[in-house]
């Protein structure tokens, strides 16, 4: 599955055996709207990497893709993400935002520099150790949902727990199901759900193991405006109510307005890093990128 699930092999055969410890059917549902979720203001700048307040630290990270004409996707990037905050990472196509997300999440290795999740330095970890870290400590939400079509909603949500060999926390799972509002859909398969419902399943799956950090790559890119607002409100609530950390790549200024902080990349570098400025200011920042001179990349 490549970057889509990043747990380990035999996902389908393990999960298809059924869900242990009872069913999640019957959990209550709760409707949410953007108006119910306050948009936070300045969350403050994070401290140094490895500080107890940091969920993720990126230090001097560069990523160069080889070939006859090497491409520098990230150019000596430094970034820190404080626990319990939501950060929107923006920039034009090819700016390096998704590359930074993948490096920060341990999906891709930087050419140089260092990445930390909490106090754990990813640079010296083996692929097996990175797989375990991704499975146990981080969650992923992608534009394409990446659900396993042969599994029910419930089985998709419980898949990370099954792969890790850990019994799910029933009280937490019930709360997650309540938050995503799919208590009556647990026995449905992904093809029986709308796009918004599928993304809610992906969010529930990402939350099921109580990850320290949730990485989102264009989580609302395939959704209509109303459904996107519901998904963003849910991500905002995850930060405000449970203290988890969300790092979200997006092109959309409205989606970015749900974050505490907006980081803008261009040409593999961070060009703007600011507390939540509002939709209009975000749009102006993105428009200004088109007027920047091209970088000098000699040598």
Folded structure, characterized:
With 299 residues, this protein is α/β, with parallel strands linked by helices. It has one domain: 3-Layer(aba) Sandwich (Rossmann fold). The chain is built from nine helices and ten strands. Strands 6-7-8-3-9-10 form a six-stranded mixed β-sheet, sandwiched between helices. Helix 7 (225-242) links the parallel strand 7 and strand 8. The chain starts with 10 loop residues before the first helix and ends in a 10-residue tail after the last helix.
- The number of distinct β-strands equals 10
- CATH superfamily heading: P-loop containing nucleotide triphosphate hydrolases
Radius of gyration: 19 Å
Largest sheet: 6 strands, mixed
Instruction: Report, as a whole number of angstroms, the end-to-end distance.
Output: 36 Å
Number of helices: 9
What structural class should be given to the helix and strand makeup?
alpha/beta
Shape: globular
CATH C-level: Alpha Beta
Helix content: 25-40%
CATH T-level fold name = Rossmann fold
Percent in strands:
15-25%
**Which oligomeric state applies?**
single chain
Mean pLDDT across the residues is 82
Would you kindly provide a brief summary of this structure?
The chain is α/β, with parallel strands linked by helices and 299 residues long.
Annotate the secondary structure layout:
Layout: H1 11-15, E1 54-65, E2 71-82, E3 86-90, H2 97-104, E4 112-117, E5 120-121, H3 127-137, E6 138-142, H4 153-164, H5 170-180, H6 195-207, E7 213-217, H7 225-242, E8 245-249, H8 253-256, E9 261-266, E10 269-275, H9 279-289
């Amino acid at each position: 599955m490549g970057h889509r699930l990043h747990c380990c092999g035999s996902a389908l055969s393990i999960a298809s055996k059924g869900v242990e410890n009872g069913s999640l059917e019957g959990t209550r549902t709760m409707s949410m709207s953007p108006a119910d979720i306050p948009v936070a203001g300045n969350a403050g700048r994070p401290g140094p990497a490895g500080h107890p307040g940091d969920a993720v630290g990126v230090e001097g990270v560069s990523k160069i893709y080889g070939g006859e004409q090497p491409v520098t996707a990230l150019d000596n990037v430094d970034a820190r993400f404080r626990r319990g905050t939501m950060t929107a990472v923006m920039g034009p196509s090819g700016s390096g935002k998704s590359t930074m997300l993948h490096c920060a999440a341990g999906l891709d290795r930087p050419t140089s520099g260092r990445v930390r999740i909490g106090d754990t330095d990813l640079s010296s970890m083996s692929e097996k150790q990175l797989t375990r870290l991704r499975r146990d400590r981080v969650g992923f939400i992608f534009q394409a949902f990446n659900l396993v079509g042969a599994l029910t909603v419930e089985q998709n949500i419980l898949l990370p727990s099954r792969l890790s060999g850990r019994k799910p926390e029933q009280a937490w799972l019930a709360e997650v199901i309540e938050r995503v509002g799919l208590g009556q859909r647990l026995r449905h398969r992904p093809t029986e759900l709308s796009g918004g419902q599928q993304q809610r399943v992906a969010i529930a799956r990402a939350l099921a193991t109580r990850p320290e950090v949730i990485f989102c790559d264009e989580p609302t890119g395939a959704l209509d405006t109303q459904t996107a607002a519901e998904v963003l409100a849910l991500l905002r609530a995850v930060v405000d109510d449970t203290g988890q950390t969300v790092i979200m790549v997006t092109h959309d200024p409205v989606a970015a307005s749900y974050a505490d902080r907006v980081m803008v990349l261009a040409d593999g570098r961070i060009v703007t890093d600011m507390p939540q400025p509002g939709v209009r200011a975000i749009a102006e920042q993105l428009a200004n990128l088109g007027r920047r001179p091209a970088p000098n990349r000699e040598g």
